[in-house]
Amino acid sequence: MNKRLITIGFLILAFAIVVKLVVTIGKNIKVDDFHKASIVFVLDSSASNQSMLADEIRYVKSLCSILDPEDAIKILKVDDSSYLIYEGSPGDTSGISKAINSYIKNDGQEKGTAYALAMKKAVEHSLTMKKEGYNAAIVVLGDLDPSYASMGINWATFPDNIKKTKQYIPELAMMFVYAPPEQLDLVKSKLNPVLGETKLIIANSANADKASRRFLTAIGR
């Protein structure tokens, strides 16, 4: 009987030691923290971009479908002005569709495409979301043609502005899709030195879908 009690005692002691070791190891294992992301979509609905708009809308929805429910998205419409048409969860499929269907309309009367204003707003939204604990990313869908130079991105100053923004959002990622090759080459030459290859994703209409995996990597997934 004594031997049996001694054996049980040893087993209990051994179990306690194992549990303690597991707990200690568990506390010391460093697990990568999940960081929720904020993605600002800049969606070109101008007359010059109408031929690509349906594909771009499909891409927005496709990218939202692979984001996490804890992520947050904002959609900025851009034509001759730019304003927010949706903010919420990427999983709100009906809300996203309703916003796009309600506001992405074009009467052909706008004068130019306000890319400069849209990018300014996208950066401002990203800074706000960073303060709320989100990793920030900006996705630009359009041909990048402002029609009027004064409304386009000023590529002489924009890289420096993004460099300054990275002081507050070090993990900032940007993706440009559906622009023509010459515009994408310009984006790459200007922003690659600032963001680096892992945080800058560019894709034309033919390889936009393949860029999604790179985008997830860029936001830490």
Describe the structure using short key phrases:
17% strand; alpha/beta; 221 residues; 2 domains; Rossmann fold; 6-stranded mixed sheet; 46% helix; 7 helices
Tally of helical runs: 7
Q: Give the quaternary arrangement of the chains.
A: single chain
Order of helices and strands: HEHEEHHEHEHEH
**CATH class category label of the largest domain:** Alpha Beta
CATH topology of the largest domain: Rossmann fold
Q: Please identify which CATH superfamily of the largest domain we are dealing with.
A: von Willebrand factor, type A domain
Q: Let me know the largest β-sheet.
A: 6 strands, mixed
How large is the share of residues in beta strands? 15-25%
Count of DSSP strands: 6
Shape: elongated
Write the CATH architecture name of the largest domain: 3-Layer(aba) Sandwich
Radius of gyration: 24 Å
Low-confidence stretches: none
Write the layout of secondary structure elements.
Layout lengths: L1 H27 L8 E8 L5 H16 L6 E7 L3 E7 L4 H11 L11 H17 L3 E7 L16 H8 L7 E5 L3 H15 L4 E4 L7 H8 L3
Parallel strand pairs: 1-2, 1-4, 4-5, 5-6
Antiparallel strand pairs: 2-3
Describe the structure.
- This protein is an alpha/beta fold and 221 residues long.
- It folds into two domains: 1-31; 37-218, Rossmann fold (3-Layer(aba) Sandwich), CATH 3.40.50.
- It has helices spanning 2-28, 50-65, 93-103, 115-131, 158-165, 181-195, 211-218, and strands spanning 37-44, 72-78, 82-88, 135-141, 173-177, 200-203.
- Helix 2 (50-65) packs antiparallel against helix 3 and helix 5 packs parallel to helix 6.
- The model has no long low-confidence stretch (mean pLDDT 88).
